[in-house]
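2 proteins. here.
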Amino acid sequence: MDAGDARLEAVVVSFNSAQVLPSCLDALRREGARPIVVDNASGDDSVAVAQAHGARVIRNARNEGYGRANNIGIRAADGDYALVINPDAVLDPGALAGLLAAAERYPDAALLAPRIVENDGRFFFQFRSLLSSFLANPSGARRFPEGDCCAPFLSGAALLVRRDVFLAIGGFDENIFLFYEDDDLCRRLADAGRSLVHVHGATARHRRGASSAPDLARAFNVRWHLAWSRAYVSRKYGLPDPAPGAALVNGLKALGSLLILDRARAARYGGSAAGAWAWLRGRDALSRQGLEKKGPAEEGLAGAAGS
């Protein structure tokens, strides 16, 4: 199977991502991948840009979040593999062919990720994960891989997934709106005996955070979900609850930031405190976004620890 094989499609979730979509989609086309853009109710020209660049577009009526929108795209895709890629990520020439060749070499791998390079040239590799105590470097050690290797965590910025395994295990947990979806997926696949493989010879360039414009309200919401999702996955896997400490510490930092009129820090710390407090009060992330939680008959894509 090569990069031009029609059985592979790439899923790109967009939310006000018109500025970065062209580079992402042009690279996918060059690599032979058919793009599916799942648009999370963007307020900009994301849909028009995606259509102009030859993508198949699925338009969500609401912002479904990262994991839920990717599940929609991967269910709609066809073929043995799907490439999940952020709109602010661009594949280098030959990257997709490299990932597919690695998938053939490592048949037990459920997820394969390219070497991710940030705008400043930094090689992004996470040496440990909140949810993975295995395959981690000793504390304090930063030993970057020099070739293909198994990893405790693969970033959702760019992932080649085996569709049958992804769908069988439930895809991304749909109770999460944003953050820790990739950690959770990696953990469930590892618990199911599948490997996660870093493919060093395939490269993607990632403009982290460039997929939507920053503002104070967005900063608050991002930190809200970061705090809530961390508490959610911690409980899911029997880890200590971080929410009480996060609510207290970030609440005090938010108050201090307001006293010195630093609105940007107040938004970030306030969002973290509010997300942790919402968790403690039993509020879920989906209701905050106006989304409905899946009913019992629909929870096949929500996943469960140890599934």
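next one coming up
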Amino acid sequence: MSHAASLPVLRPGPQPLEAPVLKVRDLRTDFDAKSGTVHAVRDVSFDLRKGQRLAIVGESGSGKSALAMSLVGLVPPPGRVVSGSVMLNGKELVGLDDAGISRIRGRDIGLVFQDPMAALDPLRTIGSQFVETIRVHQDVSVRTARAMACELLAEVGVDDPARRISDYPHQYSGGMRQRVLIAMAIANDPAVVIADEPTTALDVTTQAQVLDLLASICDERGNALIMITHNLGIVEELCDSVDVMYAGRFVESTGVEELFETPAHPYSRALLDCVIDPATTRRGAMPAIAGSPPDLAVDEPGCPFAPRCAIGRDEQRCATARPEPRTLSGGAVVRCHFADDTPGGAA
């Protein structure tokens, strides 16, 4: 479960006895831009344990994908991890050279990206890409790797894998391409699978199928899962813990059930209020959070959500003092001056 910087890791319910497979502390990632330095990830800390399904949620631009890329050394220039620690099974990943982090990606951390057509090479067969994924990390022959790939394709629901493995990505549907990415992500039995908006481009029915598949595979194999998403429906169905991210920071870290029943941060509550109600949709009124996310190139002294918050707009403390993380009695860790333990959270 996650926690905010400088606090002990807490989550509702009994604490697992085993050590976390992934331990992140005070991670900061910046991007240099003409407007200044964009602070995309700010002092993020969390623990992830074997079999845990952690959701990281927030609006576009909140820093979710930048965080995911920071964990695996894929921050594109002009971005860089400025400071902090990412420990995977006791091994520090921050500061590894390209060769070192490449050995980790695909072997110890599996990645499922949002756009399978961008992740797969359209000029190479599925088989050639799959075999390469396996042989980079395992000392096996091409024949053995191909047999392993066929087994994995069958496991994720690709019919007639011995034939389909010779097809090109464009010969697969969007949902089937995403299944291929899941199979590749688990091919080397990673400790952690990171899925970054893996169903965004899929229709609702296919989304459900892919998510069910991802959940069942992680359960069967014991992989820990980080799900990056803006879709709270996915969070409710798939995950057991959640970090709510705003302006590069975690503003609430809690259990999924607790988030939906008693959100403690005003931003969490606002996100839940934006879940589409079919009755509202028919009237043409789409729920939205008033205002715009802050400029991440500006490090304001107060709470970054204050200008959009019904409480913060009228409170001097919210405008001038950044809230420090604090732990509520139920275990949630929250950055808000007014968060409490009452139903509905901040009041």
